[in-house]
Amino acid sequence: MKISASFLNSKDVVKDLVKLNETDVDYIHLDIMDGKFVKNKTMPFSEMKNIYKYTSKRLDVHLMVENPMTYIPLYASLNTEYITFHVEINNDIEECLKLIKSYSIKAGLAIKPDTKVSELVPYLPLLDMILVMSVEPGFGGQTFIEETVNKINEVKSLLDSYHSLAVISVDGGINDITKVNCDKANILVAGSYIIKADNFQEKITSLR
Ligand code: DX5
Ligand code: ZN
Fold first, then answer.
1. Ligand 1 atom with the shortest distance to the CA of 8
2. How many CB atoms lie within 10 A of CB 95?
3. Which of 3, 17, 156, 161 is the most buried (most CB within 10 A)?
4. 166 lines ligand 1 (CB under 6 A)
5. Is 3 in a helix, a strand, or coil?
6. Distance from the first to the final alpha carbon of the chain
7. 168 CB near ligand 1 (under 6 Å)
8. What is the domain partition of the chain in residue ranges?
């Protein structure tokens, strides 16, 4: 299992990024919020881009924004492996996915707990990742929604039936107990569970 660490709930981002860089975590998960798609708003790109000073890990960018087109070129300029945005936006999804791919970056679509998996179907040929939200997007430290298990199973069957090689990532409320619901996933995103601990590596290892 690959692990992507979210620092959304960090009280000292620089310190935690430096600590994470000393672990074997696979990705740093960047939660980007615009105050429109979700109520919260995260720091602007002018500040976020400085992350390169503190981490050599590849980035897994999760855009919780209404208009990904304005964010994609910015985040594509960092050490980014995946850019993911939400299937629930009211913008041209195919155009956004193609823009991500034009930078040779892997493209993902995220799906909220109440959204039907069938919404993903039209975009499957362009997808490298499906990010299954196991909490409502907006803030860290929430409880894993148990029904996500069915969602992961549905996404896995959908990918298999379309012969898609897209990976499944699960985001929200992940810890050493809730991870047992996610055996069909390829990547687990964990925030509070890692960041609140003294020993980050121990927590990361317990999720693998
Ligand atoms: C929620 C974010 C998640 C979250 C993960 O909107 O997308 O990435 O910060 O944090 P935990 O693990 O604390 O739920
Ligand atoms: Zn996230």
1. 9
2. 10
3. 3
4. no
5. strand
6. 5
7. no
8. 2-207
